[in-house]
Specification:
This protein has about 300 residues and is α/β, with parallel strands linked by helices. It has helices spanning about 25-35, 50-55, 85, 110-115, 155-165, 180-190, 200-220, 235-245, 255-260, 265-270, 270-295; strands at about 10-15, 40-45, 60-75, 95, 100, 120-135, 140-150, 170-175, 195-200, 220-230, 245-250. The strands form two sheets. It has a nine-stranded mixed beta sheet, with helices on both faces. The chain has a two-stranded antiparallel ribbon with strand order 4-5. Helix 7 (about 200-220) links the parallel strand 9 (about 195-200) and strand 10 (about 220-230).
Length: about 300
C-alpha cells in the first residue's frame, strides 16, 4: 500500500449519512486514528448528540459558551408601530394586546427588527446556544465539538461556530448530523469532499439517495462507504453504479466490532484487520481527492 499522506496537504472532508446509526462517527474517529500525520483534526458537528469525544478521549479540555443576538426591547421608547413584527419572518417578535413580546427561541438573529425600528427601541440582547469544547488526546488527535443547550432548537449557528475553528492546512474531518435538514447542510457547506456512510438496506438506500441529491445541489464531490456490508454486492452498489459514485470501502458486519464500539474504544486499536480497512479507505480517498484537485473540482 502506498503512503497517501503526502498527497493531501489541505482538505475538509465531511462524513455524513442520510439517517442516524449508520456508523458515521465510527468511521470518522477511526479514520482520524489511522492517518499517520500530526495535522489531522476532528470536528464533531452533531451538536445535539456529540459522541466523538467518547472514542477520542481528549484531555485538557477547554470550553467556550456560544451566544447569538436576540432583540432587547426598550418599552419606554417603543411606539408599537409594528414594523418589527412585519419584517420578522419567524414570528420571533409580535404585538399582543398592545404589548410587544419577543420569543428568543424563534429568533434567527438577522437584526432586521433593529434596522427597521423608527424609534431605535431595539438593541442587542443575547441567547446562549451551547458550548464549543476542544481537547487533544494522548495520540495527538485534536478534537473540537459543539454541545447544544438542552431545549435549544437552533443548531446551525452552533455548528457554524464549530467549523470556524477549522484552521488552514491539514486534514479536517467533520462529523455531520444525520439527514438532509438545515443542521446537516450547514455541516456540509464549504466541504471539499463528502464521505457518505450507508447501510445496505432499503431504508439505508432511501436516505442515502436523499443525501446524494442534496450534495448535487451543493456541488460537493461524493464517495460512499458501506457499513455492516453483506458478503455480496447489493442495492447500494447498484445505486452507486447508476449514479456514478465510487464506493471507497465496505466494512463487514462484525459482532466483535459492535462490542468494541459499545465500550467507547477505537476499532483500529483493537482489531488489526479493521486498521487495514481504514488505511485502505484513506489510500483510496487520497487518490480520489488528488485526482479531483488536479481537475479543479475540490480544494479551490
Amino acid at each position: 500500500m502506498t503512503n497517501p499522506c503526502v498527497r493531501i496537504k489541505q482538505m475538509i472532508i465531511t462524513i455524513a449519512s442520510g439517517k442516524g446509526g449508520t456508523g458515521k462517527t465510527t468511521v470518522t474517529v477511526n479514520l482520524a486514528a489511522s492517518i499517520d500525520r500530526d495535522d489531522v483534526t476532528v470536528f464533531d458537528c452533531d451538536v445535539e448528540e456529540p459522541n466523538s469525544h467518547i472514542f477520542i478521549k481528549p484531555e485538557k479540555i477547554s470550553s467556550e459558551p456560544i451566544s447569538v443576538m436576540v432583540p432587547k426591547i426598550d418599552t419606554e421608547r417603543c411606539s408599537l408601530c409594528g414594523a418589527c413584527e412585519e419584517i420578522c419572518q419567524f414570528s420571533a417578535i409580535a404585538i399582543v394586546a398592545k404589548k410587544i413580546m419577543t420569543f428568543p427561541e424563534m429568533c434567527h438573529s438577522c437584526r432586521g427588527c433593529a434596522m427597521v425600528c423608527p424609534e431605535d427601541a431595539i438593541s442587542d440582547g443575547f441567547r446562549v446556544l451551547g458550548n464549543v469544547h476542544q481537547g487533544i488526546n494522548a495520540q495527538g488527535i485534536d478534537l473540537t465539538w459543539g454541545e447544544l443547550r438542552v431545549g435549544e432548537a437552533m443548531s446551525p449557528p452552533l455548528i457554524s461556530q464549530v467549523k470556524e475553528r477549522i484552521k488552514p492546512g491539514g486534514i479536517a474531518l467533520v462529523d455531520a448530523p444525520p439527514g438532509t435538514s438545515c443542521p446537516a447542510i450547514e455541516a456540509l457547506r464549504a466541504s471539499d469532499y463528502a464521505l457518505l456512510v450507508a447501510e445496505p438496506t432499503p431504508f439505508g438506500l432511501n436516505d442515502l439517495a436523499l443525501t446524494v441529491e442534496a450534495l448535487k445541489k451543493l456541488k460537493v464531490p461524493t464517495g460512499i462507504v458501506i457499513n455492516r456490508a453483506d458478503d455480496e454486492p447489493g442495492i447500494v452498489e447498484a445505486y452507486a453504479k447508476k449514479e456514478g459514485i465510487e464506493i471507497l470501502q465496505r466494512f463487514p458486519f462484525s459482532r466483535e466490532a459492535a462490542s468494541i464500539c459499545s465500550k467507547g474504544e477505537l476499532l483500529v486499536n483493537e482489531m488489526p484487520e479493521m486498521k487495514v480497512l481504514f488505511l485502505e479507505l484513506f489510500d483510496r480517498l487520497s487518490n480520489v481527492l488528488s485526482e479531483s484537485k488536479k481537475a479543479g473540482e475540490v480544494g479551490k
